[in-house]
Amino acid sequence: MIATRPQFIIAYLIISLGALVMGHAQGFDPIDTDLLLTSISTVIIAAIGIHYRDEASDWDNGYDIEIGGMGVIRNGKLNSRELRRVGVFFNLAAFALIAFQIYGDLELLWVAVPVSIILIWPNYLTEEVVMGHEVFTAFSYWAALMWVYIGQGWEITYPILMFSVFIYIIAFALVPLQDIGDVEADIKSGKKTLTVRLGVDGMGHLSIFVALFSLLFLYYTIIILI
After folding, report:
1. Contact 65, 189 (CB under 8 A)
2. How far apart are CA 155 and CA 149, in angstroms?
3. What is the CATH number of the domain that holds 185?
4. Residue 32 is part of which domain span?
5. Counting CB atoms within 10 angstroms of each CB, which of 16, 24, 90, 179 has the fewest?
6. How far is CA 198 from the centre of its chain?
7. Model-level pTM?
């Protein structure tokens, strides 16, 4: 269904691929397929749950009445209560998978704890906290990378940490771009995104600068891997 926001699911899958690339680059082969499927399933199920709940919350808060979101409530396909119920179900399933994986590898705890906080209060953190939309959404991509990487039982090294900083910063640069098309509606409804605060031009300039800055961490990762 479109409410899963498939474009973002694809983004999480691509980020997860980065974890495997980093493991291979450091000689941590072979990939454990069972652990990989479990880790990616956890990431995707958690993301779908948040997407459903976010769609419902935005509608209830009056944000996506005219434009924005995936439009499933606006088009009469589902109501916010149904979306929220399904979202909670997916997030509970994600918690079960998180607990299952932590049982097998306690090192996952340092990613699981902040991720669990986001799973419990996604809408408050991304809508009510200043820069929360950008900071916490970018963090979710960082967490996906590290969850898949650590989920393989691989050692946390300096290269993966530097690469994870690159992932976080590039995600932070790209997240606001999704808000450009909805900026007029977001201004009317009072959303607190950086695009609303800085305007389309200001956000565009900032995104370009941040994206270019992130490349420094990618270059450094490559250097220390050689």
Report:
1. yes
2. 9
3. 1.10.600
4. 2-225
5. 24
6. 22
7. 0.92
